[in-house]
# Entry
Amino acid sequence: MSELSALHIMYLQGVGPKKADLLKTELKMVSFEDLIYYFPYKYIDRSRIYAIRELTGNMPYIQVKAKISTPQPVGDGRSKRLVAKASDGTGILELVWFKSNKYISDQIDPTAEYIIFGKPGVFNGTINVVHPELERLKADTPRIEIGLMPHYNTTEKMKSGFLNSKAIHKLQHTVFQAFKGRIPETLPAHFIHKHRLMLLDDALRNIHFPTDMVTLEKAQFRLKFEELFYIQLNILKLKNQRTFSVQGHLFPVVGHFFNTFYNEKLPFELTNAQKRVIKEIRRDMGSGRQMNRLLQGDVGSGKTLVALMVMLIACDNLFQACLMAPTEILATQHYQSITQLTAGMGINVALLTGSTKKRDREILSQQLLSGELHMLIGTHALIEEHVQFQNLGLVIIDEQHRFGVAQRARLWKKNIHPPHVLVMTATPIPRTLAMTMYGDLDVSVIDELPPGRKPIETVHYFHNRRNNLNRFIREQISKGRQAYVVFPLIDESEKVDFKNLTEGYDYMQKAFPEFTTCMVHGKMRPAEKDAAMQEFISGRAHIMVATTVIEVGVNVPNASVMVIESAERFGLSQLHQLRGRVGRGAEQSYCILMTSPKLGDDTRKRMEIMTRTNDGFEIAEADLKLRGPGDLEGTQQSGLPFELKIANLGRDQLILQQARQAARDILDTDPMLEHPENHILTKQLTKLARQKMNWSMIS
# Structure
């Protein structure tokens, strides 16, 4: 395989400098190996030839064998096109071209027979195929396209440069002909035998040139299994290394602070899930090894209370703790609730954000260095160089996906030994994604809501029910509640979205003149935004019109109505996050999803899932299946720390579990991959590391 990676694609017959440059810029393809590992995204069965009389306008793809009349120009201006008629003796099929008219006219010979391939449609009652693929039949030449035909993703630039799917397939044929030997294995022989995998050379040939469906599925399984196996092997090996080599602070004591809080200050009895998670964290911090744990808890599940109790254990062991939140609003909220909960206990808590005045920062720095300050809550201001602790033992990061790796790593360096790390998220992560992206972390889940919380009732309305909605909002506010009205604000359509937001604000003011309406969006200055937020939090404003800036962490227990406008433009996880802004008090809360009546199948599924369940993990799994892993946080690309070439985390969950178990089995007997039969695994991991996979996305 190393030989293939050293051969530049420019020197492959049929490529040359121009196409090589196009492949590099569009697909990052530079070597023969890159081409071989560029896999088809679908296959179409080209073995069947239809009679024209069998065709209907709703068939997926078809091919017919027919003669074609000389194409004739039809229409003017933008609707100008070439039209030819194909006949096989059973009927007439219209062929239409909007581009390359002269080229098409020159290519067609009315006396020859062609295989015509494409997607049939109906125009003016006639079956047609737009831009069909044509293959001229010759008596002495075998057909090029037969059986399962692979299709490759290509860009518009590639198509303009004569690199469409068919051209890529032809290059695959050329590269396999040029490479005479067998492609070397990337897995040990004992491993291939144990897991009954197809050999790599056979798998790569069959993925591009499948002989039948059964062989294709075996080839796909081999390549998916290997891809996911190496990801898991690397993650678990890193975890082994850290477990054995990174020493952690020992927290053996559960003392005065924790016990006083538990016995005298606890606002409500802990759920069983909270108790279980605290035990898991205590076990980590008492082991002498550095803790790296991910805490998942649905919105309103009580993660902040768990975080506080863990911070109290750090204080009991004479260590300092810090909590980093992604926004000033959320950091301030954490500070206020922690200060309130620990009042009278002798715990010194401080807040550090971008707005903290210079004089206050100086006092805070002195208290941190002297050890007088027990807990520091803040935003990314915590990672600034001059913020130095006397003895930092615990770092808690809230909504971790909003911080970069470099930002998190700077907190690790605030002590000689790295502190214990707890990362928290209210975005439920599907099990498959957690295994892949956070596989080197131990995972705790709070899967119970605190007592007294009622499930949020979710309904889906079309815009024509606006009067019903307004009546309902008025009823709720008259009972003393408050309401959010959220509009999408997406970068690509920012001007239109902002207009909709401001018009929505004007509309709410006119529709509810007896109530106070405030507005919050990301373009406001921090002071303006905070003032509007405070107006709503204090209850002076009854309705808040906002963008998704309120998605994370804003806690207003009195707000019981969440209206999401243009809900079809949000992903499932983001809809669930927004819904979680209500339902934080004891009263019944409601979420109303407003959409236009014209909805695609995926959107209908999203609305149906939202109205059916409040379970964040079920929603996250459904989101992964519907949208894929690249966009799990709504309009924000969460991205994967590596590029999957063939596996799909939404569809290949079973293969991922098998691959993870296989990686575990190997490391159980050979934790550092030192046995001779596993040298091939070490070699392959080194190669993958050179491809700049960001394995350390979290830790």
The two ends are 32 Å apart (CA to CA). The chain has four domains: 1-46+164-181, 48-146, 256-446, 457-613.
